[in-house]
Amino acid sequence: xxxxxxxxxxxxxxxxxxxxxxxxxxxxxxxxxxxxxxxxxxxxxxxxxxxxxxxxxxxxxxxxxxxxxxxxxxxxxxxxxxxxxxxxxxxxxxxxxxxxxxxxxxxxxxxxxxxxxxxxxxxxxxxxxxxxxxxxxxxxxxxxxxxxxxxxxxxxxxxxxxxxxxxxxxxxxxxxxxxxxxxxxxxxxxxxxxxxxxxxxxxxxxxxxxxxxxxxxxxxxxxxxxxxxxxxxxxxxxxxxxxxxxxxxxxxxxxxxxxxxxxxxxxxxxxxxxxxxxxxxxxxxxxxxxxxxxxxxxxxxxxxxxxxxxxxxxxxxxxxx
Amino acid sequence: xxxxxxxxxxxxxxxxxxxxxxxxxxxxxxxxxxxxxxxxxxxxxxxxxxxxxxxxxxxxxxxxxxxxxxxxxxxxxxxxxxxxxxxxxxxxxxxxxxxxxxxxxxxxxxxxxxxxxxxxxxxxxxxxxxxxxxxxxxxxxxxxxxxxxxxxxxxxxxxxxxxxxxxxxxxxxxxxxxxxxxxxxxxxxxxxxxxxxxxxxxxxxxxxxxxxxxxxxxxxxxxxxxxxxxxxxxxxxxxxxxxxxxxxxxxxxxxxxxxxxxxxxxxxxxxxxxxxxxxxxxxxxxxxxxxxxxxxxxxxxxxxxxxxxxxxxxxxxxxxxxxxxxxxxxxxxxxxxxxxxxxxxxxxxxxxxxxxxxxxxxxxxxxxxxxxxxxxxxxxxxxxxxxxxxxxxxxxxxxxxxxxxxxxxxxxxxxxxxxxxxxxxxxxxxxxxxxxxxxxxxxxxxxxxxxxxxxxxxxxxxxxxxxxxxxxxxxxxxxxxxxxxxxxxxxxxxxxxxxxxxxxxxxxxxxxxxxxxxxxxxxxxxxxxxxxxxxxxxxxxxxxxxxxxxxxxxxxxxxxxxxxxxxxxxxxxxxxxxxxxxxxxxxxxxxxxxxxxxxxxxxxxxxxxxxxxxxxxxxxxxxxxxxxxxxxxxxxxxxxxxxxxxxxxxxxxxxxxxxxxxxxxxxxxxxxxxxxxxxxxx
Lengths: 321, 682
What we know:
heterodimer, B: mainly alpha, 27 helices
């Protein structure tokens, strides 16, 4: 496509809007989940905008660096935030054919998320505190347990399009005539489990506690403060949002605008907001209902995800071919 | 005789540089130690020349055979430079340069008595590896193969005053000879198909003759097994891997980097040369790919699980090499499976990924081994549990190792990811296989691959996090200092190579295309080659795509952006304070995580892969002591019983030997009678 092409300019504009929407909406989604959780547990909610106030407060503070840290400690928050923002460029939000989409397929995206995890582990271990090490070790552990299941989900989902490119997957799902894909239902169940594990939500990790025996993600960012902590928090919101977005693209792509015409885009925006709110509510309900698992029960949890995704894969060949 | 083409003459020139510099260096270094640096530089100049010429001949697809006077009567020395050789020569020259530069700076610490011998072995070792890649007949190949085994054993035995080094060297030599025996048998079966006369047998020892003959299916399978086990002994194929984690760490740092990073690739070269080149795709069967694929997958998992339990950084890296060799085996199995079930595109991608991973591994593993050597030297211990805080004290080499870690973990935008991505794309084509057994084998292999690569990220977090981050755990680690300029140059060369491999994979994939064409007759699909230097589109124009240079550029652009924004908006004030200690004021380095703690969940989740002995003290014991020993299960369950059996057998045989001459005379008499009766019966 030519740079002077009007279509190119529209797509470029939509992509830029998509990126900023993703970065700005991400804390809002966390706020919505927090509000739902508060309402469900009979507390007064702090409001949907609370994460923004938290971030604003953090960005106003000074940076306190722990002694004995190297340049890596300071570089990690920027790395994490930068990588997640770049990943947002490849995930369709409104434009199902992002200009930069071909740069990275889903396998690359999963790899980028692992890179984020690794950088965070380095940041945590740099301070040399027992908590940081503990959190880093546990986070890497959950990561390697969840990754085979993630791959199996990718296998299943990519069977429809024969490709791991996200926009290709969405297009083939949108154009498919079957109303229900049984294989995808199993993949969806597996994805929910992986989603919970990868984002440090209950029942794997409790994002709301600072109890040393249970925490994973919070232990890793314990030594960060001020704007650096703000970047880490914002990155966590962004990661949650992106994972949810991938889930929506895989399993509920209906309503994503196939063409970039104003009515389709407006409809797409409203549908997307609805889907995100529904997913957030569902997540809040899951977190209210379940208690945290013992850390050594996590393999069973992820093995279940792997099994479900494998069943989905087999069902594709039994029922859908 | 026609003049040799330029790349060939450069190759021979480099070979003689290495031989001459090595041979001359021995007496020179005995007289003047300070000559080490210029001599090592001479070796690395040869190495750079080799990499340059190999790169050119690979891209132009040079295929040239020639003979040199010598060898057996009726069999001249046959040599060749085809794309496969060029590719592996590129690995040797490229990664070798970094190691040789490093050794110029690092060897000053070695005792003057050992220096000349080490230098001689190092240069002869490089030359014999080059010979392995250039040989074009079985006889010459075996000469160089054995020379390589011998000089690498000498390298391992450099510190032979330590008993564990002697044990490791002995074990290595034993395995190397076991492997050579099987390889020779493999060559014999490949060659002896038209046994009609002495001279013709010798002529059938050239690779050219082997490639044209047609063995039966049974014989092909035998050759397949012999090749796998023979080269597997060199590559660390389970269960023949037990020497690897002992021998690689026992050698001085540059040598262990060469052993793990480059010498393992000679085994891969042998497998690809013999299976695809000499035996030929026509004589392989798709089912043979399955055991190869699954063994590779299990080997990858086994290797990385054991790597996670090691607290010696070099041992950790040696086990991680087993993992990477497993990935290579998996890819070769996948390629055979796809090619023989009629899906050449997926097969080419798998084979291409194997070759690409081989060069990636050569670069990042040598870099990491050199890094491990620097921290072992700086903290004067080979225990990760006594290191820590080294990134602050060695920022440049630490930064280079960090880069190596990111490249090695198989994460984007690193070079390890490019090959793993290609391999995964190839496994994702599993749906085109019609055979359910094949399909499930490929899926299982893919799951093992992903599990191993995720675990390897954890292993490298352990290596870097415990070794370089945190607070020094010992006094020596606290006094560590940056390494010399030449060492940094060597590591920087390797990190630069990784970066080039990460950013511009398509340049090299075009060369790999020549390799695959010369081996299988197939070429990469047009979509892959038409991507310029930006896009990798392995399967089809609308399928999956990945653009390493664009991703790298985007990441480099995005990383400083938030930093600049933060600075522009309001520069936050910064101060330093002690880390949060839960209200306790005492904070000692021992409160940090240990290397062993990282392995604990691994032992818990995968007990099947370890032979563990644990004794938990009773509550009322006076001196409670928790004892734990973890071992490679192949020792207690396979090799030690074998050894006991062998000793038992020789003891039985020993009873025959009484020492009395009358008994011996009876033995001779009985034997004579037996032989005579045999003659009578015939």
